[in-house]
Amino acid sequence: MVDSIINEMVTLIKQMQDYINQDIEDIKQAKHEELLTRNSEKEMLIEKITSFKQQLNEEIVKEMENGVDVNIYRSKVDNLETELRNLYELNRKLALIVQPIQQMYKEIVDEITQLNGGQMFDVKA
User: Fold this and answer.
1) Taking 80 as the threshold, does the pLDDT of residue 125 lie above it?
2) Which of 2, 14, 78, 86 has the fewest Cβ atoms nearer than 10 Å?
3) Which residues contact 113 (CB under 8 A, 6 or more apart)?
4) Exposed, middle or buried: residue 30 (CB in 10 Å: 0-12, 13-18, 19+)?
5) Crossing angle of helices 2-28/74-115, nearest 10°?
6) Nearest Cα residue to 9 out of 59, 64, 69
7) In the chain, what is the greatest distance between 2 CA atoms, to the nearest angstrom?
């Protein structure tokens, strides 16, 4: 059971890595619609990964309680950790691209608001 959970988690993590790489490319090419489509899929992946993490912890505890030497899973768990680190780094790379864009939009909105006397839109009735 532990092996299958780890394998499923690695598959999901690699899928998430792929989505983030696609996000990075779409941002570079200004394909913003694609980003929105993948966001809901990424949210589902995060939920699944979190659920599997809980299951993995429970299964490892069961194995230990049954006297199994859980070190037999060491290489698979190490690989899982490596993939999670890779995912973290990709996510960080995406954030480094998105944050300056977000700041630019904020500055534009702030400037427009300031030019309009503190209001975003000048509504006249």
Assistant:
1) no
2) 78
3) 119, 120
4) exposed
5) 30
6) 59
7) 77
